[in-house]
């Protein structure tokens, strides 16, 4: 396998649910560690890594507001959930000897750093993994949008969206044997056909800034590294 990375700086976006493993809620430490190892293997290639982790394993604003909670309050709770996930990932990465910074869109100085763009860029140049927490800091947004925003701000070459399947399909591959995986798909096709890669505002933000989105399986051991070395199956949205 080639060890040469085709990318210099990337954004890895994973959902909060990716950290649950087979459990139904919250964090599953062995799963967090497994994902941290995938990140380490890419970091070892010299690639500069940004991460955004969702919060859906703990709390989602929409779910809170469906239960009668005021929407913006519920969204702030969701953002706080992403900070917990970011700290868990920081702990797992540092356990593997990787220097990291958790950088929050909502300042909470005792816990992590506030987001200052130039400072974050400097961390990346020093090969620290930057985990961007608290989403965009605004209610009514998602962590997909946050990942796209930070990827643009950090001049990432692509967003790697780690999922349970190895790309974007025309229908659910877990339910339909004849589901077809796209090798390449345009932003507009994703939007028009509701292909469910990321939410519409994130896709539009990526499209307007020509930021490719690579959808791949995070369940495939070595998959993240493989794709950075130019191997494996995935879908490129561009
Ligand atoms: N959230 C928000 N603004 C943001 C990012 C996230 O309000 O910029 C809130 C929102 O309530 C969301 C929750 O945080 O439901 C968790 O994020 P998300 O649903 O994107 O997590 P994922 O589905 O990726 O686990």
UniProtKB/TrEMBL annotation:
Gene name of this polypeptide: pyrH
Main enzyme class: transferase
InterPro entries from the UniProt entry: AceGlu_kinase-like_sf (IPR036393), Asp/Glu/Uridylate_kinase (IPR001048), Uridylate_kinase (IPR011817), Uridylate_kinase_bac (IPR015963)
Predominant location: cytoplasm
Protein name (Swiss-Prot/TrEMBL): Uridylate kinase
Swiss-Prot/TrEMBL catalytic activity: UMP + ATP = UDP + ADP
GO cellular component labels: cytoplasm
One GO MF term: ATP binding
